[in-house]
Predict the structure.
Amino acid sequence: MNYAIVDIESTGGAFNEEGIIDIAVLRYEGNVLTDQFHSLIDPEKPIQPFVSKLTGISPSMVQGAPKFYQVAKRIIELTEDAILVAHNTQFDYKILQLEFDRLGYSFERKTLCTVELSQKLLPGLESYKLGKLTKELGIPLSDRHRALGDAEATALLLKVLITKEGAEKELDYLTYSEKESDLKPSHIHLVRKLPEATGVYKLYNAKYELLECGHAKNIKNHVSNLLSSLSIHQNSIYKSVKRIETELCESELYNAIRVLQVQFSLKPKKRFNLKINTSSAISFPSELSLLIDKGRTEGEHAVFLIENQRIKAMGFYDLNYQMTNKEVLEKRLSPVTPNKLNELILSTYRSKKNYEIICIE
């Protein structure tokens, strides 16, 4: 296994505006250190006073240091085909991605956080800060809050952790893919369980209060994007997501109506924005009709009972007989409260070709 142990010191400042002032990358192939890089970096922006006090790096020290674009290729080479490891990976990985984004390059690596790994393999400790952990384990740590000193201590910490009982299982569980690495650890394990399928999703907090309900063609990808660090910064309710429920269905119409039902009954903190095209309208050939669409499984259909151009009830049906019996349908299907939004959603469905309309005499 190849590891790239990374530590970064940044300028501090507003979210997504930090720059690197000190970076160290140690490349290990197995237990062998095969390459390394360390340098101060000219961030081309002010260093916050508290950062200078913490790290000892003053603005004058980075004058004449290379700018990030001058070392970017070296960082790519050292981290290629390796798991990026840091003590609090979310910070270091995010800063690296920011710097590469400014260069127009998408930097994506698998990641592993030694904070999380320590919490799993060394439970019950008072603190998991690097300084406290190294002292607890007898790991030498010089130049605290400088990139090279912290990276070397993190490398020694990783060597200790991977010898612990159960390490192999935890390493597999806590090594995140490129897509997962922009999520909070608690969110990663929620997203991993989500289906890559079409349907409705519901996001809840720890009190089981509904935060958001929506629908998507690929629930896993959509929710992963919602819970990314950028989305969390823009909408703080995503920070508190602790539970995710899904209802799978291939019918876009069913999913849109279902979201409205949930929103009207449970009133989530954030409503799903419905994109409605009111320029088209669907008409039905009789006062009472059925619209048949894709269901949840093969052989099943989503069924909508349409009365006077409005959805009266909906549900699922996998039987062909008695499909046009109104009394049977009303018992099998769930009522839909009439409202203008339902009518608008139905009107947009005219352009869809994968449904069938049946008249009920």
Remarks:
- The first strand starts at residue 2 and ends at 10.
- The mean pLDDT is 89.
- Residues 147-161 form the longest helix (15 residues).
- The chain has three domains: 2-178, 188-266, 288-359.
